[in-house]
Amino acid sequence: MAIADLCGFSQAFERELSRARALQYPLCAVCVELGQTAGDEVVSRVEDVLSASARATDVATRSSDREFVVLLPETNAEGAEILARRLYATLREALWVPGAAPVHVGIASFSPDMNGISLLDAARAASAHARDEGNSTVHVSSR
Question: Measuring CA to CA, how many Å separate 12 from each of 4, 6, 9, 42, 113?
């Protein structure tokens, strides 16, 4: 899987939200936030890890200078946590150097009362919670 541009991600995101609502299947979002010290080489490594780690049905994008979002269709919270922890471990290994930028991963599950913005906001809030918990960690939204 390649990292989608924001337009391609937005289209896939709307399509998957519609499918999740209509077919009532699970959908999760994972937010990967890099620390302040993340440079271009780190961002490139993250893109490589996401491309290599994601399933063919997953959609990922770089949403800001230090943030990536991965959409996990047909994945419940437990499955998303397993995938996110694997991804986190792979990222930590790929980025390990003295003084490496911390990696914070947040996970949120779609529910029928949510819209796309609230799903992404919940994943970002979980990532912020992970950042507040310590140097590098994974946090699952309780929403």
Answer: 9, 10, 5, 26, 20
